[in-house]
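Comment thread on ticket #2218

A.B. wrote:
> Attaching the input chain for the structure job we discussed in standup.
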Amino acid sequence: MANNIRVLIASGDGANLEKRVKVTLPHINVLNLQYDATAGITKEMIEYIENAEILLCDPPFFVECLSLKIPHKFKWVQVTWAGIDSLRNVIHSNKLELGCCLTRTGEGFGQLMGEYVLGHIISREHHFQELLLKQKQKEWSRAEFSNIRPLTSLTIGILGLGSIGSEVARMCKEMGMTVWALSRTKKMSAPYVDYLSEGWLGGAVLDVFVKEPLPSNSVLWSLDGVLITPHVSGPFSTKVADAFISNFRLYEAKKPLKYVVDWEKGY
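C.D. wrote:
> Ran it. Output below, let me know if you need it in another format.
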């Protein structure tokens, strides 16, 4: 019965999350909705949404719940991402009341995202994308790519030194780069489309977007200097489930949860 479900999972990695949670917390009732962000919420899902106590989900699912104004009894929602920008935008623009505690996954992404950032820095400095294009054209252009900057000559600015930013900073520093830590005490954004178009930025690697999947008519797809990846910089891992399990144990013990969203800071 739907009203016996305590934890509802709605995530692109729902099967793995469900398995991990059930193995570790066999005493709780768990249901995986098998949510697909492209297909959206179906009528069959609504009964479960209305009766669950706890929700573990990708942010787009909760955004859709709020946008559709589906009534719910959630006491606690934990999102599987570290960032909550899409949720914040919907909640603030529509002046919505959550009616529950919202937490984010504030751990488990640092190593993978650090590797992602470092990989793209090296790829850019060594012109890997341009070299691949030359290979496809069967062109030998050694002189064109002979001037490569060593990583030790680079200065890297990192906005925010949470668990992810700190790991990125550590990796860059170990490679000999100069690291500048920039405070993120307020919500910050940049019109990077304008900066790229006007030449202020030499390029951008973009992995997370307000609307996902990124619409096919977005200007970003064809903007020179932009590399788009489909939100894979911090792939799901057992650590996402473990972060939820750790918080669930606090929830059961009626203790304060970790990584409760601070709306003033925006994360």
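A.B. wrote:
> Thanks. Noting for the ticket: The chain has a mean pLDDT of 90.
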